[in-house]
Design brief:
This protein is α/β, with parallel strands linked by helices and 371 residues long. The chain has three domains: 71 residues; 141 residues, Response regulator (Rossmann fold, 3-Layer(aba) Sandwich), CATH 3.40.50.2300; 146 residues, Response regulator (Rossmann fold, 3-Layer(aba) Sandwich). The chain contains 15 helices and 13 strands. The protein has a seven-stranded mixed β-sheet, sandwiched between helices. It has a six-stranded parallel β-sheet with strand order 2-1-3-4-5-11, sandwiched between helices. Helix 6 links the parallel strand 1 and strand 2. The longest helix has 20 residues. It starts with a helix and ends with a strand. About 16% of the residues have low confidence.
Amino acid sequence: MPHAFTRTLVFMLALWTLMIGANAYAHSWPSIAFVPALLYASAINRGRNGSRWIAIFAISILLMRAALPADAADQRPYRIGVLNEAFAANHPTVEGLRAGLRDLGFEEGRHVVFDIRFSKGDPKSLAPAAQALVKEGVDLLFTSNEVATHAAQAATRTIPIVFTLVGDPIASGVVKQLARPGGNLTGISSLTSDLMPKRLEILKTLYPGVRRVWFIHDATDPTGAAALKKGMEAAQQLRIELTPLGVADAPHVVAVLKTLQPGDALLAPDQDGFDIGASILEKSLEARVPAMFPSSLWIEHGGLVSYGPDYYAQGLQAAQLVAKILRGRRPADLPVESADRVYFTLNVKTAVGFGLSVPSKVLFRADGIKQ
């Protein structure tokens, strides 16, 4: 009987060795325990000291567990906390992030899961939301807009942060250098300051009779001030008056919009505190006042014209940074990137409703035309 058991044991160990060579058990460490278990059973069958073999059995399990690759030993998906200054969870930057990570091999539910928090029009809600995500132990924070990014920075100095929709990362104090951001974050710049002159030029081309352009922005937003400097220089060359106005709350925005005069136009800010963009869109359509917006998202809702990075495209671009970090890179070593592409989008129907004649060169240059 003992000899028969020994022969059986040798046969099974040989078979198991072949399976090992074929990587049949590469991601199933409990099944590997079958080998020391057989050795233990053999020892007991021969009447040897069971206690000693129990210890050997346990140590074998621990050593094989430690030798396994990290992905086999820990199948928990990465948790990405999303902090967004938006009214809904399906903001285009978030949808772009999801699509980008999926294209890079990160399957949602299996490799990554998302915990999405958004402001619903209340920027003050982002700070406690960031703290909650950090407390819950997310592996990475993904932010959209400056307020959300600053909230994430205040909540953690260790968890990686990837930001989008930050108009001027240096002027806003998010980073000190673009090439080496340092700390625990990196992300995508929306190029607000650089795009200001071109936005004014397009607005003047569409509305040659414009005399004054109102630039209404959050009074606490440093990006607006940085963009204004370049805007003033461009306004002088275009011979139009650029009137900046920092607002402190939503009622202030409404009050300012009531003072518009014939010959006025509007320039919506990139940072949409106090729902400035929506208020400008409503007033623009109601009073037929030409307005320039920072993203094509507004054109889908009737806005006249936009010139700026696409929100969804920024999410796609940021997904590459997120993937690099999840695979072991440090945010401090990943340069802040400029938005890959700037889109010029025109709503022809709105232009006709405003009584504007759209030059052929404008139609030719537009990346997107909404009829």
